[in-house]
Protein backbone atom coordinates (compact mmCIF):
# COMPACT_ATOMS: atom_id res chain seq x y z
CA UNK A 1 0.00 0.00 0.00
CA UNK A 2 2.78 2.39 1.00
CA UNK A 3 4.75 1.34 -2.06
CA UNK A 4 1.78 2.11 -4.26
CA UNK A 5 1.39 5.51 -2.64
CA UNK A 6 5.07 6.33 -3.17
CA UNK A 7 4.78 5.25 -6.76
CA UNK A 8 1.81 7.57 -7.22
CA UNK A 9 3.65 10.49 -5.66
CA UNK A 10 6.68 9.78 -7.83
CA UNK A 11 4.51 9.49 -10.94
CA UNK A 12 2.78 12.79 -10.23
CA UNK A 13 6.12 14.53 -9.62
CA UNK A 14 7.40 13.32 -12.97
CA UNK A 15 4.26 14.68 -14.56
CA UNK A 16 4.62 18.09 -12.97
CA UNK A 17 7.58 18.95 -15.14
CA UNK A 18 5.47 19.13 -18.22
CA UNK A 19 1.91 20.07 -17.45
CA UNK A 20 -0.57 20.46 -14.65
CA UNK A 21 -1.46 17.19 -12.99
CA UNK A 22 -5.01 16.44 -13.95
CA UNK A 23 -5.57 13.22 -12.05
CA UNK A 24 -8.35 14.14 -9.65
CA UNK A 25 -11.14 16.59 -8.95
CA UNK A 26 -9.15 18.07 -6.04
CA UNK A 27 -9.71 21.63 -7.32
CA UNK A 28 -13.49 21.26 -7.60
CA UNK A 29 -14.99 18.87 -5.01
CA UNK A 30 -17.91 21.29 -4.55
CA UNK A 31 -19.72 19.80 -7.56
CA UNK A 32 -20.13 16.41 -5.83
CA UNK A 33 -22.36 15.82 -2.82
CA UNK A 34 -20.06 15.49 0.24
CA UNK A 35 -17.12 15.84 -2.16
CA UNK A 36 -17.63 12.23 -3.31
CA UNK A 37 -17.28 11.57 -7.04
CA UNK A 38 -18.54 8.31 -8.61
CA UNK A 39 -16.31 5.28 -7.97
CA UNK A 40 -13.43 4.43 -10.30
CA UNK A 41 -15.33 1.73 -12.18
CA UNK A 42 -16.46 4.37 -14.68
CA UNK A 43 -12.90 5.46 -15.46
CA UNK A 44 -11.87 4.83 -19.06
CA UNK A 45 -8.37 3.60 -20.03
CA UNK A 46 -7.20 7.14 -20.72
CA UNK A 47 -9.11 9.54 -18.46
CA UNK A 48 -8.81 13.26 -17.77
CA UNK A 49 -10.34 14.92 -14.72
CA UNK A 50 -11.44 18.38 -15.77
CA UNK A 51 -12.51 21.09 -13.35
CA UNK A 52 -14.32 23.16 -15.96
CA UNK A 53 -12.89 26.64 -15.62
CA UNK A 54 -13.97 29.78 -17.43
CA UNK A 55 -13.32 33.44 -16.57
CA UNK A 56 -11.49 32.60 -13.36
CA UNK A 57 -14.19 30.40 -11.86
CA UNK A 58 -15.06 26.72 -11.79
CA UNK A 59 -18.53 25.90 -13.10
CA UNK A 60 -18.78 22.06 -13.05
CA UNK A 61 -16.61 18.96 -13.29
CA UNK A 62 -16.14 16.50 -16.16
CA UNK A 63 -14.51 13.08 -16.37
CA UNK A 64 -13.28 12.85 -19.97
CA UNK A 65 -12.36 9.86 -22.14
CA UNK A 66 -9.37 10.94 -24.25
CA UNK A 67 -9.52 7.87 -26.51
CA UNK A 68 -13.22 8.02 -27.36
CA UNK A 69 -13.17 11.83 -27.25
CA UNK A 70 -16.40 12.10 -25.26
CA UNK A 71 -17.11 12.85 -21.61
CA UNK A 72 -17.91 9.94 -19.28
CA UNK A 73 -19.96 12.30 -17.11
CA UNK A 74 -20.33 15.91 -16.00
CA UNK A 75 -21.25 16.78 -12.39
CA UNK A 76 -22.82 20.04 -11.25
CA UNK A 77 -25.22 21.72 -8.86
CA UNK A 78 -28.68 22.22 -10.31
CA UNK A 79 -29.54 25.93 -10.34
CA UNK A 80 -31.83 26.52 -13.27
CA UNK A 81 -32.22 30.08 -14.47
CA UNK A 82 -33.14 31.15 -17.97
CA UNK A 83 -30.65 33.10 -20.02
CA UNK A 84 -28.45 33.24 -23.08
CA UNK A 85 -26.80 30.42 -24.94
CA UNK A 86 -23.25 30.72 -26.24
CA UNK A 87 -22.53 31.12 -29.94
CA UNK A 88 -18.95 29.89 -29.75
CA UNK A 89 -17.53 26.52 -28.73
CA UNK A 90 -14.53 25.89 -26.53
CA UNK A 91 -11.91 23.17 -26.15
CA UNK A 92 -9.64 22.19 -23.25
CA UNK A 93 -6.02 23.44 -23.53
CA UNK A 94 -4.74 21.08 -20.81
CA UNK A 95 -5.61 18.03 -22.93
CA UNK A 96 -3.05 19.06 -25.57
CA UNK A 97 -0.17 18.47 -23.14
CA UNK A 98 1.40 21.57 -24.68
CA UNK A 99 -0.27 24.38 -22.83
CA UNK A 100 -0.43 25.64 -19.27
CA UNK A 101 -3.61 27.62 -19.92
CA UNK A 102 -5.96 26.43 -17.21
CA UNK A 103 -9.33 27.32 -18.64
CA UNK A 104 -11.37 26.52 -21.74
CA UNK A 105 -10.49 28.52 -24.86
CA UNK A 106 -11.55 28.58 -28.51
CA UNK A 107 -9.61 26.65 -31.16
CA UNK A 108 -8.66 29.92 -32.86
CA UNK A 109 -7.29 31.45 -29.65
CA UNK A 110 -5.11 28.38 -29.11
CA UNK A 111 -3.89 28.60 -32.70
CA UNK A 112 -2.74 32.17 -31.99
CA UNK A 113 -0.87 30.80 -28.97
CA UNK A 114 1.01 28.37 -31.22
CA UNK A 115 -1.01 25.24 -30.51
CA UNK A 116 -1.94 23.50 -33.74
CA UNK A 117 -5.26 21.88 -34.51
CA UNK A 118 -3.36 18.55 -34.70
CA UNK A 119 -2.25 19.02 -31.10
CA UNK A 120 -5.81 19.78 -30.04
CA UNK A 121 -7.37 16.89 -32.00
CA UNK A 122 -5.18 14.21 -30.49
CA UNK A 123 -7.03 13.85 -27.19
CA UNK A 124 -10.34 15.61 -27.68
CA UNK A 125 -13.11 16.36 -30.14
CA UNK A 126 -12.94 19.56 -32.18
CA UNK A 127 -15.61 21.60 -33.96
CA UNK A 128 -15.00 19.86 -37.30
CA UNK A 129 -15.92 16.50 -35.76
CA UNK A 130 -19.47 17.75 -35.16
CA UNK A 131 -19.99 19.47 -38.53
CA UNK A 132 -22.57 18.19 -40.99
CA UNK A 133 -24.05 15.52 -38.72
CA UNK A 134 -27.48 14.18 -39.63
CA UNK A 135 -29.84 13.16 -36.86
CA UNK A 136 -27.28 13.90 -34.15
CA UNK A 137 -26.92 17.01 -32.00
CA UNK A 138 -24.16 18.33 -29.82
CA UNK A 139 -25.76 17.00 -26.64
CA UNK A 140 -24.78 18.76 -23.42
CA UNK A 141 -24.16 16.58 -20.35
CA UNK A 142 -24.09 19.58 -18.02
CA UNK A 143 -26.91 21.54 -19.65
CA UNK A 144 -26.91 25.27 -20.21
CA UNK A 145 -30.43 25.50 -18.75
CA UNK A 146 -29.35 24.18 -15.33
CA UNK A 147 -26.80 26.92 -14.68
CA UNK A 148 -27.57 30.03 -12.69
CA UNK A 149 -25.55 32.71 -14.46
CA UNK A 150 -24.41 33.63 -17.94
CA UNK A 151 -20.71 32.75 -17.47
CA UNK A 152 -21.67 29.28 -16.24
CA UNK A 153 -24.07 28.84 -19.15
CA UNK A 154 -21.34 29.79 -21.61
CA UNK A 155 -19.00 27.36 -19.86
CA UNK A 156 -21.27 24.44 -20.82
CA UNK A 157 -20.39 25.11 -24.47
CA UNK A 158 -17.12 23.26 -24.37
CA UNK A 159 -16.70 20.13 -26.46
CA UNK A 160 -15.45 18.17 -23.44
CA UNK A 161 -19.04 18.43 -22.10
CA UNK A 162 -20.62 17.25 -25.37
CA UNK A 163 -21.61 13.89 -26.85
CA UNK A 164 -23.22 13.03 -30.20
CA UNK A 165 -26.83 12.75 -29.06
CA UNK A 166 -29.83 11.62 -31.07
CA UNK A 167 -31.55 14.85 -32.21
CA UNK A 168 -35.06 13.60 -31.63
CA UNK A 169 -34.20 12.52 -28.08
CA UNK A 170 -32.28 15.73 -27.34
CA UNK A 171 -35.13 17.96 -28.49
CA UNK A 172 -37.84 15.58 -27.26
CA UNK A 173 -38.00 13.43 -24.12
CA UNK A 174 -34.52 14.34 -22.86
CA UNK A 175 -35.45 17.99 -23.03
CA UNK A 176 -38.66 17.23 -21.13
CA UNK A 177 -36.65 15.36 -18.50
CA UNK A 178 -34.19 18.25 -18.12
CA UNK A 179 -36.84 20.95 -17.92
CA UNK A 180 -40.15 19.53 -16.62
CA UNK A 181 -39.20 16.37 -14.72
CA UNK A 182 -36.24 18.00 -12.99
CA UNK A 183 -38.24 21.03 -11.93
CA UNK A 184 -41.11 18.87 -10.58
CA UNK A 185 -38.80 16.59 -8.65
CA UNK A 186 -36.72 19.36 -7.09
CA UNK A 187 -39.58 21.51 -5.75
CA UNK A 188 -38.62 21.28 -2.07
CA UNK A 189 -34.88 20.68 -2.57
CA UNK A 190 -32.53 23.24 -1.11
CA UNK A 191 -29.62 21.81 -3.08
CA UNK A 192 -29.62 19.23 -5.86
CA UNK A 193 -26.43 17.58 -7.09
CA UNK A 194 -26.57 16.11 -10.57
CA UNK A 195 -24.31 13.75 -12.50
CA UNK A 196 -25.11 13.19 -16.17
CA UNK A 197 -23.21 10.67 -18.24
CA UNK A 198 -22.96 8.70 -21.45
CA UNK A 199 -22.25 4.98 -21.93
CA UNK A 200 -19.86 4.43 -24.86
CA UNK A 201 -21.46 2.75 -27.87
CA UNK A 202 -20.21 0.59 -30.73
CA UNK A 203 -20.56 3.25 -33.43
CA UNK A 204 -18.82 6.57 -33.97
CA UNK A 205 -18.69 9.78 -35.99
CA UNK A 206 -15.98 11.83 -37.68
CA UNK A 207 -14.29 8.82 -39.26
CA UNK A 208 -13.97 6.97 -35.97
CA UNK A 209 -12.66 9.89 -33.97
CA UNK A 210 -15.64 10.42 -31.69
CA UNK A 211 -17.70 7.68 -30.05
CA UNK A 212 -21.46 7.74 -30.34
CA UNK A 213 -22.82 6.72 -26.93
CA UNK A 214 -25.37 3.93 -26.64
CA UNK A 215 -27.07 5.48 -23.59
CA UNK A 216 -27.40 8.85 -21.89
CA UNK A 217 -28.19 8.80 -18.16
CA UNK A 218 -28.63 11.25 -15.34
CA UNK A 219 -28.75 10.95 -11.56
CA UNK A 220 -29.71 13.47 -8.89
CA UNK A 221 -29.40 13.70 -5.12
CA UNK A 222 -31.68 16.24 -3.42
CA UNK A 223 -31.04 17.87 -0.06
CA UNK A 224 -34.03 19.10 1.90
CA UNK A 225 -32.41 21.28 4.54
CA UNK A 226 -28.96 19.76 4.98
CA UNK A 227 -29.88 16.07 4.54
CA UNK A 228 -29.92 14.09 1.29
CA UNK A 229 -33.59 13.14 1.35
CA UNK A 230 -34.38 11.88 -2.12
CA UNK A 231 -32.49 10.70 -5.14
CA UNK A 232 -33.48 9.47 -8.58
CA UNK A 233 -32.18 8.54 -11.98
CA UNK A 234 -33.11 8.43 -15.64
CA UNK A 235 -31.71 6.65 -18.67
CA UNK A 236 -32.35 6.83 -22.42
CA UNK A 237 -31.16 4.78 -25.37
CA UNK A 238 -29.37 7.15 -27.70
CA UNK A 239 -31.48 6.26 -30.73
CA UNK A 240 -35.01 6.46 -29.30
CA UNK A 241 -37.14 9.31 -28.03
CA UNK A 242 -37.77 7.68 -24.65
CA UNK A 243 -36.57 8.39 -21.12
CA UNK A 244 -37.00 5.81 -18.36
CA UNK A 245 -37.47 6.99 -14.75
CA UNK A 246 -35.51 4.96 -12.21
CA UNK A 247 -34.49 5.08 -8.58
CA UNK A 248 -30.82 5.88 -7.98
CA UNK A 249 -30.26 2.24 -6.96
CA UNK A 250 -31.88 0.97 -10.16
CA UNK A 251 -29.78 3.28 -12.30
CA UNK A 252 -26.59 2.14 -10.57
CA UNK A 253 -27.62 -1.49 -11.20
CA UNK A 254 -28.30 -0.74 -14.85
CA UNK A 255 -24.91 0.93 -15.25
CA UNK A 256 -23.25 -1.92 -13.36
CA UNK A 257 -24.58 -4.36 -15.94
CA UNK A 258 -23.64 -2.11 -18.90
CA UNK A 259 -20.09 -1.52 -17.63
CA UNK A 260 -19.75 -5.02 -16.10
CA UNK A 261 -18.32 -3.41 -12.99
CA UNK A 262 -19.91 -2.27 -9.76
CA UNK A 263 -20.90 1.40 -10.16
CA UNK A 264 -21.74 3.86 -7.39
CA UNK A 265 -22.61 7.37 -8.49
CA UNK A 266 -23.23 9.25 -5.25
CA UNK A 267 -22.10 9.29 -1.65
CA UNK A 268 -23.75 6.52 0.43
CA UNK A 269 -26.00 9.02 2.19
CA UNK A 270 -28.09 9.61 -0.97
CA UNK A 271 -31.10 7.22 -0.82
CA UNK A 272 -30.97 4.33 -3.31
CA UNK A 273 -34.70 3.38 -3.12
C1 LIG B 1 -41.08 10.39 -15.08
O1 LIG B 1 -41.41 11.13 -13.94
C2 LIG B 1 -41.92 12.43 -14.20
C3 LIG B 1 -42.02 13.20 -12.89
O2 LIG B 1 -42.50 12.43 -11.85
C4 LIG B 1 -43.22 12.31 -14.95
O3 LIG B 1 -43.76 13.58 -15.21
C5 LIG B 1 -42.96 11.57 -16.26
O4 LIG B 1 -44.14 11.36 -16.96
C6 LIG B 1 -42.29 10.22 -15.98
N1 LIG B 1 -41.87 9.65 -17.26
C7 LIG B 1 -42.14 8.40 -17.61
C8 LIG B 1 -41.65 7.97 -18.94
O5 LIG B 1 -42.74 7.62 -16.87
UniProtKB/TrEMBL annotation:
Residues 56-261 form the DNA/RNA non-specific endonuclease/pyrophosphatase/phosphodiesterase domain. One of its GO terms (molecular function) is hydrolase activity. Its cofactor is Mg(2+). Keywords: Endonuclease, Hydrolase, Magnesium, Metal-binding, Nuclease, Signal. Residues 1-19 form the signal peptide. Gene3D superfamilies: Extracellular Endonuclease, subunit A. SUPFAM superfamilies: His-Me finger endonucleases. Residues 57-265 form the ENPP1-3/EXOG-like endonuclease/phosphodiesterase domain. Transmembrane segments: none annotated. The keyword Nucleus does not apply. PANTHER family: ENDONUCLEASE DOMAIN CONTAINING 1 (PTHR21472:SF26), ENDONUCLEASE DOMAIN-CONTAINING 1 PROTEIN ENDOD1 (PTHR21472). Belongs to the DNA/RNA non-specific endonuclease family. This is ENDD1 protein. It comes from Passerina amoena (Lazuli bunting).
